[in-house]
Amino acid sequence: MTSETNNFTCDFCAEKSNSISITLPCGFIVCYSHLKTQNEIIICFICKNHYINIKQCFNMPRNKLKLQNATNYSLIEESDEEPNMSVDPFSGDFVPTNSAQHFYHEDPKYNSLRYSSFQLFDNENSHLYWLEISPTGNFVCASDNSVKIWDSNTGNLLKRLNGHMNRVFTLKVLANSEVASASADKTIKLWNEDTGENLKTLVGHQDWVNCLAEMSNGNLVSGSDDYSIKIWDLDGGHCIKTLNGHNYYVHDIKLTSDGELISSSADRTLKIWDLCTGQCKSTLIGHSNWLGRLTILNNGGIMSSSTDKTIKLWDKNSGKCVRTFEGHGEYISNIKELKNSDIISSSKDGYIKIWDINNASCLKTIKPFNDFITCLDIFSNEQFLTGCINRQLKLWTF
After folding, report:
1. Number of Cβ atoms within 10 Å of the Cβ of 96
2. What are the beta bridge partners of residue 232?
């Protein structure tokens, strides 16, 4: 045990010390005291070439053993500051107390954040998967095997549009006010919100349909677990083009301002498509697990989320990952851009995080629910909405 606190020369302060030495991911060795008061994710203060996740650094095998021995033998120095490290009782990991479960590095501009909460009423086994606002102001939602319409003022269920034979995971309120719904029954259905009439059923995918996007010419684009992306002529109700290239489930699609399509897939890639030719222009690689939701920023940048629990910012032109955002404890269910260009994300872990786009630091962490957050919508410069799988909603105001 004594070898864990032998004299060493800190690569940061250049002083000899007999305190605990911590090895950084880049190989430099520093005093524990230089890290213990830091935020969860920092730029390496020695080489400045990478980010350091403090939790992951503390749990590198060599560091974890040193910290365990130091804790057992009370060798971690006392301080007047609140201790910033605790042991997770389930994993045994060393966790900075300003990590994902806490409010760390909070930006004062979010100190006034407040919410009003309400419930969408239905039977107790009903689930909420997706929510959009209709032109009438109602909540149009993907819920169980149906499209459901709730009164946004009272939370009362107004209408249930039945017809799908399996779960409806997403929908899109179209420019003409019709509603397109995508289902695990392999179909897409078009609905009249007012009458509840099923106007058309689009058949062609061979597996679950996961995502929808509307083109400026009124055509609809869909992505599926059959690995394909399809473009549909809604007037004729038929597929006019199929985009093949992904090797696994297509989880999300977004259209860019210059008419390209971005897709994310369980094959761990993003692809950029030319919709005129149907050809893949480039493939973006960097995530270590399935990709989920993505968003296109106002400046043209791409942000992707993954079951590897990270968010990545990409430069569309170079295809390079610019920045990685770490902090969520589960996979990310949604990412959106706020009007001030900060990024907001929601996760299966029940947390919402607001991020600085310029340095990937977390500006605010809140936990609106104790359940899976399925819905995240930006309403205006001053409001956003969160919804969880059990139909609880919270409207947040800055």
Report:
1. 25
2. 220, 239
Position of tokens 């954040």? 113
Q: What is the Cα gyration radius of the chain?
A: 24
Please state, in angstroms and as integers, the Cα–Cα distance from residue 327 to each residue in 82, 98, 177, 287, 324, following that order.
21, 11, 38, 15, 10
Distance CA 326, CA 343 (A): 13
Nearest-angstrom CA–CA distance, 261 and 271: 8
Question: What pLDDT, on a 0 to 100 scale, did the predictor assign at position 69?
Answer: 74
Cα atoms in the 13 Å half-sphere on the side-chain side of 246: 31
191-194 own/partner pairs: CB under 8 Å, 24+ apart: 191/147, 191/161, 193/134, 193/136, 193/138, 193/140, 193/149, 193/159
Average pLDDT over residues 105-120: 84
Q: How much is the average pLDDT of 311-324?
A: 94
**Torsion-angle region of 275 (φ positive above 0: left; ψ -120 to 50: alpha; else: beta):** alpha
Helices marked H in the chain: 54-58, 61-72
Closest CA to 242 of 199, 214, 206, 269: 206
- The tokens describing 182, both together, are 């995508």
Q: How far lies 81's CA from each of 35, 38, 184, in Å?
A: 14, 12, 53
Output the average pLDDT for the chain: 86
pTM of the prediction?
A: 0.74
Sequence-ordered list of residues with C-beta below 8 angstroms from that of 135, at least 6 positions apart, any chain: 173, 177
The residue behind tokens 């968003």 is 295
Q: What is the DSSP string of 114-162?
A: EEEEEE--S-TT----EEEE-TTSPEEEEETTEEEEE-TTT--EEEEE-
Going across the sheet that includes 187-191, the strands are: 168-173, 179-183, 187-191, 198-203
Is the pLDDT confidence value at 289 over 80? yes
Query: Nearest-CA neighbor of 361 among 49, 165, 107, 19?
Result: 107
> pLDDT for 343-364, tens place per residue?
999 998 889 999 999 999 999 9
Report d(CA 230, CA 220) in Å as an integer.
8
